[in-house]
Amino acid sequence: MSDLSAARARYVELIARRERIASKRLLAALATVPRENFLARGPWRVKTEAARSYRLTPDADPVHLYDNVLVAIDARRKLDTGLPSLWAHFIDLLDVREKHRVVQIGCGLGYFSAILSEIVGPNGRVQAIECEARLAKRAATYLRAYRNVEVVHGDGCRDIGEPADVIIVHAGFSHPHPLWLQSLRPRGRLLVPLTQRDREGAALKVTRRGKGFEAEAVQQIRIFPGQGRGVTALDDRVAEWWQRASSLAPLRFRDLAQGLPSDG
Q: Beta strands 45-47 and 70-74: pairing type?
C-alpha cells in the first residue's frame, strides 16, 4: 500500500470512528474522492479545528490533506474548506441516499459535492450553488467528471430549482430561508448553520413533516457568513432565539414571519 493509500485509509477510519458514521456509501465516498483534486496545488495552509492560526504543509504531497484539518481557500478572509469530520457527520445525519436530489448552498471548491455525487449515484442529482464567481468556476472545473453534479454560479436564497430531498447550507445565516423550507420534498431535510456576526452559532436540522416543519439544533459551529446574512443586532437576536428554542426540544412550526416560526 502506498503512503497516500495508507493515509486515505487512516483518514476514513478516523472520521468513521470519531463521528460513528452509519452510511457505508458515505465512507466509500470519503475513501474514493481525492481531496487534492479540489484544491490549488500545494503546499497548503492547514489548521485543526481548535487552532487559531494556519501552518504550512512541508511540501505538496497530498498525504498531508488526509487528516481532519481545514485547508485555506483564502487565508486573508479566513475562508476554508469544510472540516471533513463535521460535514461527514452532517451528511450522515441527513441520511443522504441513492437517487436523492441534493442542493448545496455554498459549495466552495466542490469536494463535498463530489462526496455527495458518489452517495446519490448516477440516478441521483446534486446541484452545487456558489455565489462567488471565481469559486464557482473552479468548482465546475474540478467537478467536470461528476456527471450528476450541476454547478451553478448564483444566489441560493433566490433559486434552487426543483424540490429537493436534502438541502445543505455551507455558510452562516440568521434563520432558515423560506425558499429552502418551501423547496423540501415530503420528509425532506435541511441543514443550516445559524450564526451571529462573530461566526459562532449552531447548525439547525429542519425536517418537513406533513404541512409543517420540525427543527432541532444538532451541533455548535463556527463558519463563514453567507451572502445576504444580516449584519444588525436584530439578526443576531433572531439567530440566538433559534439556537435556544431548538436546543431545548424539537421545535414545530408551519411558516416563518420575519425569520421566526409562525403557525400562519
A: antiparallel
**How many other CB atoms are found less than 10 A from the CB of residue 220?**
12
Q: What is the pLDDT of residues 85-130, one digit of tens each?
A: 999 999 999 999 999 999 999 999 999 999 999 999 999 999 999 9
Q: Quick one: how far is CA 128 from the chain centroid?
A: 11
**Helices vs strands, H then E, count in the chain:** 7, 14
Could you give the CA distance from residue 66 to residue 248 in angstroms, rounded to a whole number? 36
- Residues 203 and 248: their CA atoms lie apart, in Å, by 14
Report field, pTM of the whole predicted structure over 0.85: yes
Q: Beta strand pairing status for 164-169 and 101-105? A: parallel
d(CA 118, CA 135): 21
Cβ contacts of 221 within 8 Å, gap of 6 or more:
86, 172, 193, 195, 200, 201, 202, 203
Point out which residues pair with 61 in neighbouring strands.
Answer: none
What does the pLDDT look like over 217-240, one tens digit per residue? 998 888 887 876 666 788 888 888
User: d(Cα 47, Cα 153) in Å, to the nearest integer?
Assistant: 28
Q: Give the C-alpha separation, 85 to 16, whole Å.
A: 8
